[in-house]
Amino acid sequence: MDELDLRGEVCLYTFVKTKLKLEELESGEELIAIYDHAPAIENVPRSLKNEGHTILGVEEVEKHLWKVRIKKR
């Protein structure tokens, strides 16, 4: 499972960089994306769902730090 650490990045970059990383993966593979920008926790999963990807989970691992588990369509 690949991991993408986007701490310090803000929206729209969080979505764009996540999308680019997903393009490197095969269908069905999973990605863990790490964000510390609160708006990304709502915006990125919603946008990825709209593109057909599956959000397997969102976990706040510490205050203002989240891991989002994504399965590529």
TrEMBL record:
Domain of life: Archaea
Keyword line: Transferase
GO molecular function, a single term: transferase activity
EC number, as in UniProt: 2.8.1.-
Membrane-crossing segments per the record: none
Residue intervals of the UPF0033 domain: 3-72
SUPFAM superfamilies for the chain: SirA-like (SSF64307)
Family: Belongs to the sulfur carrier protein TusA family.
Name of the protein in its database record: Putative redox protein, regulator of disulfide bond formation
Lineage of source species: Archaea, Methanobacteriati, Methanobacteriota, Stenosarchaea group, Methanomicrobia
